[in-house]
Amino acid sequence: MSALSFAPHLNININPKLIPKPKSKPNKTRVSLQTFPPATFSDPFVVQLAESLEDSLPSSSQPLPLQKLRDFSSQTLLSTPWPSRKDEPFRFTDTSFIKSSQIEPVTRISESATSLGISDDPQFTNLVFVDGFIQKSGLNLSNLPDGVYVGSLLDVSDEIVKRVSEFIGEFQSGDLFWSINGMGAPDLGVIYVPAGCKLENPIYLRYLSVEGGNEESKKLPVSNPRVFVLVEEGAEVGIIEEFVGNEGNDCYWANSVLEVVIGKGGKLKHSYVQNQSFGAAHIKWTAVMQETASTYELVEVSTGGKLSRHNLHVQQLGPETVTELSSFHLSVTNQTQDLHSRLVLDHPRGYSRQLHKCIVAHSAGQAVFDGNVKVNRYAQQTDAGQLTRSLLLEPRATVNVKPNLQIIADDVKCSHGAAISDLEESQLFYFQARGIDLETARKALVVSFGAEVIGQFPYPSLRNQVESHVKELLETKHESSS
Q1: Per residue in 301-356, pLDDT tens?
Q2: How is residue 251 annotated by DSSP?
């Protein structure tokens, strides 16, 4: 039975625009809707969401990579049910908050946001997204070297469009939220660094969520910003991603995707800061493909959102490859802070380090870490390490950690570890023995717990900004509980 004949049987009206038109030449990366068994089309909520995303997009023709992305995403979206706690990847992450809301795709940039989001630091090249739309008025490319491009896919040269098209649909990661982004992204931000080019100053990606609802109205505006980064052979660049929303407890859903390809010998320093409203849903995908002898360094600090989840997938595609991942999550309200990471090593002499730290400072707060490092058969002489440490400051605070190291190669040096605790009595005693009172000692130890990650940000202004924000959150939490 075909998919179209099965849908009426379920009383589901599938918008014909969601069914991609057949092409004369089959694309091997595509999956036809007719290849899925009928049972995969049994989630009316996903179909309704897909229709609302389709209706929110402009009807004008789009560049080939963007149209290819939407076609591919619509196919996978309709074949994927909404996740529940019965699904292993979401066993500790409850997404019912999103599903029970009135989801409304944002269709345009708010007029009040035309001058928001521009960093005043002259060393940064800014690319600002407002509710998923690129704010072109704030884009300054005057400081970029020749050949480097930062901006919208709609304005890029044909040569770069061709290079971007080679990778659309090639990433092996993704879930329902990845497909929702691919179908609902109004544009594709592009960062292109040509071979051998080394940028001294970082590129600043700032994502602003302006449209918002409240808990009573159940309104949940959703935005789908998407960025593709291509670092060619021997090139180097730094990227800062910062996610912010209106102050207070505005309800919105930021559903973001970043795809990265690093060429042979290339290097990318990635700084990621998440400071959304405490009423928001924040779901982030980061997918990275690294060629031979390339380097990817991530430093992440996540403090906002009612529900925050980062899906991080890295694949090493050649030998001598370096991957370093550092993350710090802080939950000071009834938040869920979730990191699901997957690192795949397929070639000899790969190197990786992952450090994950989190603080849960609320009795209804939760942290989740699911980290998977897979060392395949030909990844001999791999050196891989993973460590997760969690600090629980309230009696009913919760953390679920699942470090996972899968080794198929036999000549490797690999390790992983996990620790969950309150502050150590011996450390508190050390402070008190030197005349420091217990309250001051606890504050100092809590702040220093995250400092190990925050201190790895490569840019002093960003490092100081994040450090001050974390201290302010912890201080406010301490005052409210006193």
Answers
A1: 999 999 999 999 999 999 999 999 999 999 999 999 999 999 999 999 999 999 99
A2: B
Alpha-carbon span 178 to 69, nearest angstrom: 11
Contact 244, 210 (CB under 8 A): no
Asked if residues 209 and 244 have their Cβ atoms less than 8 Å apart, the reply is yes
How far does CA 158 lie from the centroid of its chain?
Answer: 28
Q: Which residues of 397-411 are buried (b: 16+ CB within 10 A; e: fewer)?
A: bbbebebebebebee
What's the DSSP call for residue 108?
Answer: S
DSSP annotation of 433 reads T
Q: What is the distance between the alpha carbons of residues 173 and 195, in angstroms, rounded to a whole number?
A: 26
223 touches 252 (CB < 8 A): yes
Rounded to whole angstroms, how far apart are CA atoms 366 and 399? 6
**Which residues are 289's β-sheet partners?**
261, 315
Distance CA 411, CA 406 (A): 13
pTM of the model: 0.88
Instruction: Give dist(CA 337, CA 335) in Å, integer.
Output: 6
Phi, psi at residue 268, to the nearest 5°?
A: -130, 125
**What is the reported pLDDT for 13?**
36
Which stretches of 129-196 are DSSP H helices? 158-165, 176-184
